[in-house]
Amino acid sequence: MGTFEIFVLIMTVMVILVEAYTSRDLAKARERLAEEEAEGKRVRGQLKVLQFERAPIAKQLNDLEKTLNSQNHQILAMQTQLGEVAEENVKLKESSEKK
User: Fold this and answer.
1) What is the b/e burial string over 76-93, where b = at least 16 CB atoms within 10 angstroms of the residue's CB?
2) Quick one: pLDDT at residue 46?
3) What is the DSSP string of 12-77?
4) SS3 (DSSP) at 99
């Protein structure tokens, strides 16, 4: 066996080793990808469950906010009326003191 044949044999063995190593790496990468995809599906499922559970709470918060806004408007109207009554009282006191 000549030098060239030994060189070709060594190169062939190296190519086979590289292919085996690459195939193993690809298999591991595919396995990791499958695990990550499964994890992603699990997380998306949990997110959907949370969104479903959160929907009634969000609606309730919106309803409470509307009620609060309505009550705030009523309070502001009452404060305005109270201010008008206070001004009227001051005017009445001043007019009664002048008499």
Assistant:
1) eeeeeeeeeeeeeeeeee
2) 93
3) HHHHHHHHHHHHHHHHHHHHHHHHHHHHHHHHHHHHHHHHHHHHHHHHHHHHHHHHHHHHHHHHHH
4) coil
Torsion of the alpha carbons at 86, 89, 95 and 98, rounded to the nearest 10: -90
Q: Which helix (H) or strand (E) holds 92?
A: helix 3-98
83 secondary structure, DSSP code: H
- Residue 4 DSSP symbol: H
pTM for the model stands at 0.47
Residues with Cβ < 8 Å from 21, sequence gap 6 or more? Answer: none
pLDDT digit string, tens, across residues 34-85: 999 999 999 999 999 888 888 889 899 999 999 999 999 999 999 999 999 9
User: 50 is written with which tokens?
Assistant: 């949370």
